[in-house]
Amino acid sequence: xxxxxxxxxxxxxxxxxxxxxxxxxxxxxxxxxxxxxxxxxxxxxxxxxxxxxxxxxxxxxxxxxxxxxxxxxxxxxxxx
Length: 80
What we know:
By secondary structure, this protein is mainly alpha-helical. The chain has one domain (about 5-80): Arc Repressor Mutant, subunit A. Helices cover about 70% and strands about 0% of the residues. The protein is elongated and about 50 Å long.
């Protein structure tokens, strides 16, 4: 573990970090922690690979038009 952040904080911020949406200044601390902490490194590697696989698979799958329209209609009805 490194001095900047602990495992709990690194893992809590991991999804934002992997999607490049982390709090400004937190990215280098997360990266440093992941590089030095074997359990967090393994977790981050799994998550990174999983997100990459989802992105690859999702690019080839499209929601049926009828379902898409039903969801959009439901969202419009819920809008204030």
